[in-house]
Amino acid sequence: MADAVPAPEAQPDGEAATGGKVLLATEAPLFATVVAEPSPTKSPSDERVSAAPAPAPSMRRRIALALFAVVSLLFLWVVAPILPPFIIAFVLAALLDPTVRFLEGRGRSRMRAILTLYALGALLFILFAIVLVPRVVAQIQDLTINFNTYSDHIKNSVDSMLQHNTKVLLWFGIKQKSLQDLMQKSVPVQSAVAAALGGLTVFLQSIVSRIFWLIIIPLSTFFILRDYPMLRARIIFLFPEAYQDKIDEMSREIVDVFGAYLRGLAKICALFALAAFILFSLLGVRYALFLGLMAGAFYAVPYVGQLFNAIATGTVAFLMERHTVLFFFHPGTHSIGYALTVALCAILLQNIFDQIVYPRVVGGSVGLHPVVSIFALMAGVTMMGIWGMLIAVPVAASIQILLTSFFPKLVQTPPERLLESPPRPLA
User: Fold this and answer.
1) Domain residues for 393?
2) Taking the model in full, what pTM does it have?
3) What one-character-per-residue DSSP string does 332-386 give?
């Protein structure tokens, strides 16, 4: 009788037959299936507690930012006296960046483009120092040596004019018969002269006391200009993403306005200095080079600069001895007619520049209404003196850009029904 063949045993769950060998699931971890155990039952109160947001991190972050802002403002307040040269360096870097990018577009690296600008600036400075500075210094020294003589001539001339025109001056309430009495008893004149001299003295002292800026500003400008694209991008990146494109656009417009205005103003001042030097040389005015450079510098100060240039050139012309002008005219010593002619020519030259040359060189780079420009100049001189007057116009233009960006209706053309109202019937 044949042996009975045993029936195959059923393999338990979790086993697999491979090559006659039985593998358990525990022996093949790569193919094992992980079964998640049911989580313990949560009460409704636990679900409400876990669903609520945790306010602590957000509140701590806001407090930390507020403290950081307060500490930063206090630090800036303490170091405020040393900030101006670094602010000027950053502004110069922003103004020079378009030129650097232009040179980069011509195949130069950014470092080579910056070094090219610095080399050109150094060359111009050396030429100015070699060609013009010695002559200007010589004229200033001559003016200083003869200052007492000139002041005596002015005093005697004014005294003579007051004594010979007593009846006419009485109509204007002027009873004094000497310049000394006029200065002592005329409070408005004395206060005006003292204020003008005081302001000029403070301005000159501020320039002399900031000689070290001549080292700090170029050095800081170099490093800021080298990294300017990254610095600008990082500053804009601090704002929310929804506003970054708008801030990028507004910042470029503001930099363009400042750059166009300052570059145009530098050109117009240089051209006016050259034209004034040629005019004063033709008219035979003494110290023509010094007066021409001074006229170019004061051309940047609207309204006040024109009056100052006219008075300065007229005074120098009045103090001159008899000489020849244009090979034909021979004005006498201390000629009032010659002095008035020189002063009027200086005023006429500046008006020609204001009406013809200035619009072509500077153009509509600012785009301010004339009344807004006058208000900006008065506000600038009230807040910051001469320096405020110099930057008042581009600052006002920058504020105008910001306002028109947030309120577009300021630059939109109003409807015709508001431009011309229909005539009202007569009663």
Assistant:
1) 242-407
2) 0.63
3) -TT-HHHHHHHHHHHHHHHHHIIIIIHHHHTTTSS---HHHHHHHHHHHHHHHHH
